[in-house]
Amino acid sequence: MESNYIVTIGRPSYQKNPFFLVDVIKGVHECHPEIRFYLLGVGFYSPDLEEMKSRLETYGLNDVVILKEWADHDTTMNYVKDSLLYLTVSRYEGMPLAIIEAMALGKCIVASKVVGNIDCVKDGYNGRVLDLKETEFVNAINELLNCPELISEYGKNSRELYEMEFDIRKRIGMLEDIYYKIAKR
Length: 185
Prior knowledge:
The protein is an alpha/beta fold. The protein has a single domain (5-184), classed as Glycogen Phosphorylase B (Rossmann fold). It is built from 8 helices and 6 strands; from the N terminus they run E-H-E-H-E-H-E-H-E-H-E-H-H-H. The protein has helices at 18-31, 49-58, 73-81, 97-104, 117-120, 134-145, 148-166, 168-184, and strands at residues 5-9, 36-40, 65-67, 85-88, 109-112, 127-130. Strands 3-2-1-4-5-6 form a 6-stranded parallel beta sheet, sandwiched between helices. The longest helix is centred in the C-terminal third of the chain and has 19 residues, at 148-166. It is globular.
């Protein structure tokens, strides 16, 4: 496995916005042909996988995008840990566990500006949160790739934010406080 790659997790489906992802990858590849993209968790049922593969072929990106089937958690987290940054272009999310795990690993995050993502990523602090506009994503990723120090700073901030806001030991205590207050009513 090489180390000069960007990673994303999610099966090619409407929610994960795979065709937009392909367009973003194409734009980044034009400025940074050395960068690869790993799409993890392609899954057993990926309704947009064949169309995504067709677009990758059309754009000449078959060697740029590595599609990985489902893998165990440790293997997946090793891919995330060794990546340059974590990318998600989802149309919607709940609580994005993949982002939280990437934050725990100290990764810079580039994410779509949707509920869930905006609860985890603070634009300009631990990554970038962007409207679903191709040029915004391409420009933001290219700027980060041109400034490894910023990727590193955002990654450090991701880990700190994870420890402050998302560490399960702290979260359980916060939930217990909420339940206790409700029970007293």
